[in-house]
Design a protein that fits this description.
The protein is an alpha/beta fold. Helix content is 18%, strand content 34%. It has a single domain (36-152), classed as Sandwich (Immunoglobulin-like). β5 and β6 form a beta hairpin. The protein is elongated, with a radius of gyration of 21 Å. The protein starts with a helix and ends with a strand.
């Protein structure tokens, strides 16, 4: 009986380690790479420990702005491409289909955040023609491909 005790202890320890490892890997899918938190935070957004962006929301939409409906879900935006004219006022209405997501365009100072099953609207205006990348700043989402393009002509 006592000869098998070390084997039993080693087996239980190995199972415990395996369960711990699987629990660490089995997150909710909202962050594929935990190491991305620092790179996402370096984009100028104030993340809290839960990964939520606490940066101030973008400006409200201008009166008469063209509304653009954007749906965010892990790990994509719909639509993934938006077109606008130089100086055109847009009202980006962001809704989230699953968890908290945001819509960020660094060059334009845009930040719109929406919680699950909730929406938020923010104003967007580009006075210079070009392509602007919008992305979700929740840690790991941009790295997982949650980006889109605003093309201004």
């Amino acid at each position: 009986m006592f000869k098998r005790l070390p084997i039993l202890i080693a087996t239980v320890t190995a199972l415990g380690l395996l369960v711990g490892l699987l629990a660490a890997c089995g997150n909710d899918g909202s962050d594929r790479e935990g190491s991305n938190m620092m790179s996402d935070m370096s984009m100028g957004h104030d993340m809290d420990m839960s990964g939520r962006d606490n940066s101030p929301s973008t400006r409200p939409p201008a009166e008469g702005a063209r509304e653009i409906q954007v749906v965010a879900r892990s790990f994509a935006f719909e639509p993934s491409e938006i077109e606008a004219k130089v100086g055109e006022e847009l009202a980006v209405s962001l809704t989230s289909a699953d968890i908290t997501h945001d819509f960020v365009i660094d060059e334009l100072g845009v930040h719109v955040q929406a919680d699950k099953d909730a929406g938020e609207t923010g104003g967007v205006r580009a006075d210079t023609a070009g392509s602007y990348t919008y992305y979700c700043s929740v840690p790991g989402h941009r790295t997982a491909g949650m980006e889109g393009t605003l093309t201004v002509a």
